[in-house]
Write a structure and sequence with these properties.
The chain is of the alpha+beta class. The chain has 2 domains: about 5-85 and about 200-239, Glutaredoxin, CATH 3.40.30.10; about 95-195, Glutathione S-transferase Yfyf (Class Pi), Chain A, domain 2 (Up-down Bundle), CATH 1.20.1050. The chain has 10 helices and 4 strands; from the N terminus they run E-H-E-H-E-E-H-H-H-H-H-H-H-H. Strands 2-1-3-4 form a 4-stranded mixed β-sheet, with helices on one face. Helix 1 (about 10-25) links the parallel strand 1 and strand 2 (about 30).
Length: about 240
């Protein structure tokens, strides 16, 4: 049995965890969660991730030697794995706090704003100029914030860390977010630096292999968008 089960689909949040596991050289197994087919609402997955969002992991070999432990939410998973392995999470208290600042910046800002950018610009059945401009503009602002942070360092918190691992997958779809990396030279240098890392290449290759076996069809929209408390509870009961 692998020490880590990675329940994921190759989205930006999913890729974060794949990158960490490859970088750390951990023994892990991918358990696909096809979000376009509604796998995130299956009872067995909801036991791991009650928010019906992937990724989630199961650590079959926790540090305390106890029973397997499940962790959901990508930021929490990165923090857990950093603490478990002692990798990509600075030991110095001040440096650690910088990395955590930017980890939470990503999960509270870059990810949600870029996600809304994706939704209104690509998936929404009605193209609403105000919504598109709002989220494209906010994504642009956040790119500027990150570009400034990288103006005097190779990586976000100084040394390569979970902050970089969290942010990079959300910059990969920059063209779909209507952002030009040439406008952010420090960010572009950082992006290319991480893109060339062998572990990152391996993580994305494994994600591509997972997604190639599935398609998003006409029914996928009801799983991906427009969920309410009632629909989530109903799907959870149906499995």
């Amino acid at each position: 049995m692998p020490s880590i089960e990675l329940h994921y689909w190759p989205t930006p949040n999913g890729h974060k965890i794949g990158i960490f596991l490859e970088e750390a050289g951990l023994d892990y197994e991918i358990v696909p969660v096809n979000i376009g087919a509604g796998d995130q609402f299956k009872p067995e997955f909801l036991k791991l991730s009650p928010n019906n969002r992937m990724p989630a992991i199961v650590d079959n070999a926790p540090v305390d030697g106890g029973d397997p432990i499940a962790i959901f939410e990508s930021g929490a998973i990165l923090l857990y794995l950093g603490e478990k392995t002692g990798q990509f999470l600075p030991g110095d208290r001040r440096d650690r706090q910088v990395a955590l600042n930017w980890l939470f910046w990503q999960v509270g800002g870059l990810g949600p704003m870029a996600g809304q950018n994706h939704h209104f610009a690509q998936y929404a059945p009605e193209k609403l100029p105000y919504a598109i401009d709002r989220y494209v503009g906010e994504t642009n602002r956040l790119y500027g914030v990150l570009n400034k942070q990288l103006s005097d360092r190779d990586f976000i918190a100084g040394a390569y860390s979970i902050a970089d691992i969290a942010c990079y997958p959300w910059i990969v779809p920059h063209a779909k977010q209507h952002q030009n990396l040439d406008d952010f030279p420090h960010l572009k240098d950082w992006f290319e630096r991480i893109q060339a890392r062998p572990a990152v290449e391996r993580a994305y290759a494994k994600g591509k292999a997972v997604s190639q076996a599935a398609t998003v069809n006409a029914d996928s929209g009801r799983f991906l968008f427009g969920q309410t408390a009632n629909s989530v509870q109903a799907m959870g009961r149906q499995g």
